[in-house]
Amino acid sequence: MRKLVMSCAMAGMIALSPKSEARLPASVTPPLAFSQARLEFGLASWYGDECSGNPTASGESFDMTALTAAHRELPLGTKIKVTNLYNSRSAVVRVNDRGPNIAGRVVDLSAAAAQRLGFVRQGLTPVQVEVVACPKFQDCSYVWQNQGAPTRHAKPS
Question: pTM for this one?
Fold first, then answer.
């Protein structure tokens, strides 16, 4: 009973407290609401030295040591969490290029991101892609909203 009273008192204090002044950096909008969040499943590949220094769709030079990605539809600058479904390792990367240009693949990652996810040797791995933050003044919810369920591949056992 004592725990219940304390919990109710704490909840009341939180509810009546002034709103927090904490804010996200101006360069990003809050993540999508849980009901709007979309997951995409498919294959990830990586690219590295052969593309080093080439211009990306965002205009910057490709840096294989940066945590970046190429995605067909998400706005450039979007931060996504990519999770390797074989080993559960994940990394947050920034979309700065367009691709992949091969059917069945959902994202191309930099060599550094592939290293962090642990699939450099394999070259390809099944992944889950989740939008973490969109660039300012961009709405990422439209990307998968009108397409029904995003691409889904069987999760490896």
Answer: 0.67
Has residue 4 been placed in a domain?
no
Distance from C-alpha of 138 to C-alpha of 148, rounded to nearest angstrom: 20
Query: How many independent structural domains does the chain possess?
Result: 1
Q: What is the C-alpha separation between 139 and 135, in angstroms, rounded?
A: 8
Structural domain including 70 reads: 28-145
Token pair in block for residue 111: 């060599």
Burial class (CB in 10 A: 0-12, 13-18, 19+), 108: buried
Question: DSSP per residue over 19-73, as a string?
Answer: PP-----TTBPPPPPTTT--EEEEEEEEE-GGGTT-B-TTSSBP-TTS-EEE-SS
In a domain, 3, yes or no: no
Query: CA 47 to CA 156: how far, in whole Å?
Result: 23
Residue 47 lies in a domain: yes
Contact 112, 65 (CB under 8 A): yes
pLDDT of 25 over the 70 cut: no
> What are the residues facing 111 on neighbouring strands?
none
